Amino acid sequence: MRWENLTENPADIPTGRVADAALFGADTVTTRTFDTPEFAGVTFHEIRARSIVNRVPGASRMPFEWTVNPYRGCTHACVYCFARKTHSYLDLDTGLGFDSQIVVKVNAPELLRRHLASRRWHGEHIAMGTNVDCYQRAEGRYRLMPGIIEALRDYANPFSILTKGTLILRDLDLLRQAAEVTDVGVSVSVGFVDRELWRTVEPGTPAPERRLDVVRALGEAGIGCGVLMAPVIPFLGDHPGQLRETVRAVAAAGATSVTPLVLHLRPGAREWFMSWLGQHHPHLVRRYERLYAEGAYAPKWYQRRITRQVHQLAEEFGIGPSRAEDPRRLRARHEPEPAPAATQLTLL
Questions:
Q1: What is the model's pLDDT at position 334?
Q2: How far apart are CA 35 and CA 311, in angstroms?
Q3: Cβ–Cβ contacts within 10 Å for residue 50, how many?
């Protein structure tokens, strides 16, 4: 295991070159397992990171520049998760290892507070949940997010959270407090409401209806919550009837917006997803090879078709076409950021 390779931007490290400034040293790693049913088979690597605020690579499609990720690896075990590739930088397995070997940056709250206090920091928007879910099951034990939100609140720093986790409701009071002093946005990811599909592609996540309960609860608490309808999975979750059922449920939950994002398959995720597809839906393998023949993203014509269908349904059910900034902001105190193309966010 190459702990020295866990750097702020590991994708920038050429093959075979060890980073000049690792985010922590190997002597700071404590490995633990817990004898509880919810963590059966899961190993946690507790580390004291050297930095926590990461710059998004310039080539990214994301509409934000800075992220905070207190965890690496994710027990949600989504078979399509783009972040699987990041485990390879530590010589960890990107398949089952990504689902069960979780890196925990135990000093994330104190690091963030120190960063926000720096004269070099100018209060830019910070996005969370864009790599792995900050409200995955590990958060129930390590409780890093309360300290992170408190720091952002105390420095009135704008932020957004994207999650599939219901644990975010634990921090509802903190989110309210932060929203009094800065721009706060929350989005919940619900790509489909098909329970059979959910059980196979997102086995470690709360059920779609539980996530929609989060949307409803946040709305009732005065915190508008958007839904990222992500990912829309070709040939498995993109039938017009499935799209209609999902948008109807999103509208019923009181979402402020819905943004469809089509599945993308980057290296690391692609291999794991295609292996899963071959086991569960072998008749679709050739269709996927053709659809994704040009790279990680589905063709533009397919993305546009899904976006058009979902926006029409959203208008029918009273949500209306979404703008990328809607689910991430509670109050429009600043000029809105430019909307990205209708492609999948990197978390998903």
A1: 36
A2: 46
A3: 17
Q: For residue range 310-327, what is the model confidence (pLDDT) as tens digits?
A: 999 999 999 954 444 443
- What is the distance, to the nearest Å, from the Cα of residue 321 to the centroid of all Cα atoms in its chain? 22
Q: Is the separation of the CB atoms in 56 and 31 below 8 Å?
A: no
CB 193 within 8 A of CB 339: no
Q: Which residues pair with 225 in a beta bridge?
A: 186
Per DSSP, helices labelled H in the chain are 96-100, 108-117, 138-142, 145-154, 172-179, 195-201, 208-220, 240-252, 269-280, 285-291, 300-316
Distance CA 274, CA 195 (A): 21
Q: What is d(CA 46, CA 42) in angstroms, rounded to the nearest whole number?
A: 13
What is the rounded average pLDDT of the residues 255-269? 95
The rounded percent of the chain whose pLDDT value lies above 90 is: 74
- Give the bridge partners for 30, in sequence order: 46
pTM score over 0.90: no
Residue 298 predicted with pLDDT over 70? yes
Residue 237's Cβ-count burial label (10 Å; 0-12, 13-18, 19+) is buried
Say whether 140 sits in a helix, a strand or coil: helix
Identify any residues that bridge with 226 across adjacent strands, giving them in sequence order: 187
Burial label, 341 (beta-carbon count in 10 A; 0-12, 13-18, 19+): exposed
Query: What span, in angstroms and rounded, lies between the C-alpha atoms of 245 and 267?
Result: 31
Q: Which residues, in sequence order, are CB contacts of 94 under 8 Å at separation 6+?
A: 84, 85, 87, 88, 268, 269, 271, 272
Cβ proximity of 268 and 94 under 8 Å: yes
Q: Is the pLDDT of residue 203 over 70?
A: yes
> Which of 82-96, 99-113, 130-144 comes out lowest in average pLDDT?
82-96
Write the CB contacts of 205 (distance below 8 Å, at least 6 apart in sequence). Answer: 76, 77, 78, 164, 165, 198, 211
Tokens standing for 226?
A: 């958007």
Q: For residue 188, which of 174, 173, 199, 202 has the smallest C-alpha distance?
A: 202
Residue type, 216: R
